[in-house]
Amino acid sequence: MTAPPEAAAHRRPGLAGELVRAPNLLSLSRIALIYLAGGLMLGGQALAAVAVGVAAGVSDYLDGWLARRLGQTSELGAILDRLCDLVFESTWLLVAVVMGDFSPIVLLAYLLREFVVLSARMWCSAHGVALGSTLAGKLKSNVLGYTAFVVYLAHARVVEPVRPLLQILGTIGIVGGLALSYWSAYDYLKTFARAYRERR
Second label for 137, Cα 20 to 30 Å away, from 113, 176, 185, 197? Predict the structure, then answer.
């Protein structure tokens, strides 16, 4: 017996169906742009890397706007958005470490925070505990995002006169971004600890 047309019209699309929606395709394209920017940076094409990075950054705002505009907001979209943030931040920090901009300790400190928060998110998700984004977490993403462009741009020849200033701004940005990341991790872990204690 087949479902009536009105039931079929309201049936939720599967994973493949959601992935090919315009906002989610835009999110997936951002991952490709992030890796392309990193490759260009390592290949000595700093300005091209910055241009591609800007395109990736614009898509970060555009996919959310498009999802709301088309009425296609979804849990998958939120997952892809977080994934893109992780790919972007970990990729540009790795490239910066390889280029000698920061000590490997910076990347390790960032990854430790992400692993801890990811573990807390997994437990909370499995137990129906909401662990939404915090203001500190959103600020952290923005600070690290803008810092990436400053650090990449500092390698371009055309900015030679202001390179020292850009390097200082990059250092301030990474210190501030990491501080915000651990502040937000503290907020997440407070929620996790409270929920864990209540379920014992």
Answer: 197
Q: Which amino acid is at 15?
A: L
In angstroms, rounded to a whole number, what is the distance separating the alpha carbons of residues 142 and 139? 5
Which residue segments constitute the domains of the chain, with CATH numbers given? 16-198 (1.20.120.1760)
Contact between 174 and 147 (Cβ < 8 Å): yes
Cα separation, 100 vs 72, whole angstroms:
42
For position 71, what pLDDT does the model report?
80
157, HSE (Cβ side, Cα atoms, 13 Å): 2
68-117: pLDDT as tens digits? 888 877 777 788 888 899 999 999 999 999 999 999 999 999 999 999 99
154 vs 167: CA distance, rounded Å: 7
